């Protein structure tokens, strides 16, 4: 069973190579990509069940034993995140495949799109199952390099400019992360996370806090936590719709996952939880106020994304078992729902040839199905009962109440306020885009004055309103069903998240499995390397 | 003595690397990235403690080895830095190709400029206000009764 763990990275990487064998054969590429993503989803479900019964699975790739070799570890939170990201990647891939079919590859040149997309998936999975800090760094680099290619896809001036901001910020955070790994190795002599969990407690208190801060800054940039979130709304909206959807759903969550590991496994005695709580509150408020001011749906959603990262950081800052359980559930919910919303905006963009709130209107008549597809995740993200967004927020608030303290009550207040404003922002955008009669839309209203507030004017003006291919609608419906199933199966899912939260709050089992993991078959020979 | 020289080299490379990365010119950003990346490699190298010997030779006593792990890290980091450098070079060429007049600089963010220049902010309500008065927002007008798909 341990041998399944490395396949989460190997399958997408090898498939990426296979898709390059026949770059012009669209059907071949799509089959290979879909096959790879489906098999990852199946494997992750097997792993989810397995780790739920037996506890964390650990494997030392290359034959070197745990503290020195490359450890790959799957515990409950890794397994569920890998599973959800595989499903999301699959849904978005079909969406983009439909778009490529209809557009003749203008938006997404398929020959490089599929392999890059798979490499991105490999990087995300590698980050989720990395058992040591350096492998986490490698996972981050794999997904970042793939994301550099995807965000500048097509190479228009607009995308290159937005891409450069993203790339430079990511490079800085990578250098910071690598530097911190070097310093941590100097302080403890290990980079294995389980080993670090035991050894970091022995080092000097001020050094301990400094290293903790350095890691949080490096991951905070990736997770887009205030004040390190400035780059996100400038870079995400310009990418093609499916790419933005994947980035919004997955990349920031990998950063959040790394922060969870930092606070639960590496720095268990961290004194920075108060700081995290304050930053969470500011992230929520600043993000959502930014969203209120936006005139473009894609930019607006990017700010909403930043705002909701605040909820995840809030859950981590509570620092109790209940807090981590709620965070786990909320991450799963947010990956799916945020991606679905961006996909829905992709449909709007396609149907109306714009995402500007000034120019949109009357879509309810033209595209009633898109209206429904947008409306459901909108309610979900806004936290309307009985959707999973509501359950996630209630779980967070419950955990905060159990923790007590002025700061926690303050955070709950902020959280409730922000969820209302989220609903306002999203509902207003929906009402304008779908409900407002087309006659009131200002198609050419003072275009120059607002040109810079559009996410990608240059690209959009090239597009005419077009019919949506069935496969795109199908992919969007799949995502909506996925997001609704989080609500339908919220019971078992939340129970699972609670057990994952218990593992996070008490990492003893994780440490034992990794360091003591010499029992039967946990080592592979050097065949893997 | 050796490590002091390395330390000074590292500090200078970090400082000049980050300084260059703050520039608008992509060439300088790239040079800065290379400098800072290699400064990080030096840092990891120094963190290995004693160095100068070969890592992992034969099956002898461990005392004769340098710590092999940091060297493996550095090797990986060098490969990653190399790949990213190649990508940024391609990006620079594309950026220059698209806008030769601008050479290879990062463009000014128009939204930031607008915010810096004006104190009033433009809100959606403001944009819509003029026509909202005469409109029947959220009300079905008679033209909408036939439900086209």
Can you count the beta strands of chain B?
0
Largest interface: A-B, 52 and 51 residues
The main β sheet of chain A shows up as: 2 strands, antiparallel
In helices, the fraction of residues of chain B equals: 55-70%
What's the number of helices of chain B?
5
If you average the pLDDT of chain A, what whole number results? 85
Shape of chain A: globular
Multimer state: heterodimer
How do the helices and strands follow one another from N- to C-terminus of chain A?
Answer: HHEEHHHHHHHHHHHHHHHHHHHH
Low-pLDDT segments, ≥5 res of chain B: 130-149
Give the helices and strands, then pairings:
The complex is a heterodimer of chains A (529) and B (149).
Chain A: H1 4-21, H2 26-54, E1 57-61, E2 70-74, H3 76-103, H4 110-129, H5 133-151, H6 157-188, H7 193-199, H8 205-223, H9 232-235, H10 241-266, H11 273-292, H12 297-318, H13 321-352, H14 363-366, H15 368-382, H16 388-403, H17 406-435, H18 447-450, H19 457-462, H20 470-488, H21 490-505, H22 508-515
Antiparallel strand pairs in A: 1-2
Helix pairs in contact in A: 1-2, 1-4, 2-3, 2-4, 3-4, 3-10, 3-13, 3-20, 4-5, 5-6, 5-10, 6-8, 7-22, 8-10, 10-12, 10-13, 11-12, 11-17, 12-13, 12-16, 12-17, 13-15, 13-16, 13-20, 13-21, 15-17, 15-20, 16-17
Chain B: H1 2-21, H2 26-47, H3 68-98, H4 110-117, H5 124-132
Helix pairs in contact in B: 1-2, 2-3
Textual characterization of the structure:
The complex is a heterodimer of chains A (529) and B (149). Helices cover 74% and strands 2% of the residues of chain A. Chain A has 22 helices and two strands. Chain A has helices spanning 4-21, 26-54, 76-103, 110-129, 133-151, 157-188, 193-199, 205-223, 232-235, 241-266, 273-292, 297-318, 321-352, 363-366, 368-382, 388-403, 406-435, 447-450, 457-462, 470-488, 490-505, 508-515; strands at residues 57-61, 70-74. Chain A has a two-stranded antiparallel sheet. Chain A starts with a helix and ends in a 14-residue tail after the last helix. The model of chain A is unreliable at 452-462 and 518-529 (pLDDT under 50). Chain B is mostly helical and 149 residues long. The radius of gyration of chain B is 28 Å and the shape is elongated. The termini of chain B are far apart. In chain B, 20% of the residues are buried. Residues 130-149 of chain B have low confidence and may be disordered. Classes of the chains: A mainly alpha (529), B mainly alpha (149). Chains A and B meet through helix 5, helix 6 and helix 17 of A and helix 2, helix 3, helix 4 and helix 5 of B.
